[in-house]
Amino acid sequence: MILIPHILLGALIGLIAPHQYWIVFIFAFASHFLLDAIPHYEYKIQLLKERSEERMGVLNIFRDKQAFFVLGKIATDFLLGMLIAIALVWFSPARQYVLVVALSAVLPDGLLALYWMTKTPLLEKLARFHHFVHPKNNKNTPLLWGITTQLIVSLIVILLILCYR
Ligand SMILES: [Zn+2]
């Protein structure tokens, strides 16, 4: 899924789960794979993956217009998700905690990117698992359906955050 639903579900978990960071961290981390298992639309990150695998280095990705555009999409997605989460839990006493848990929920995507860049065996199994949880033909998910699933998840999670904050 794009990052927004992951961040929001992470925030919800941070809000409702007991404040024992490691347990909550595991829940938030696992929630990432749960959402990725739902058929969804994803913007094309293939180019960034290829550039990472060519070990172009961060600076070269900034020089590559197309790769930079993809990076911009990811950054916008991330910032928008965090802004919505911050706005939703701003008045919660556990605000900072909730936001850290929200970050834990997107960590698997960060680790996947790190794997593409480094190809470290340490992250290989996780990268494979990440790929494995995606529906088999996720790329063929019709656009409308692929967006609708993420919208529904995000709206349900926002409603729950509003109830529990
Ligand atoms: Zn993912």
From TrEMBL:
This is Uncharacterized protein. Keywords: Membrane, Transmembrane, Transmembrane helix. The chain crosses the membrane at residues 7-30, 67-90, 97-117, 143-164. It comes from the Bacteria.
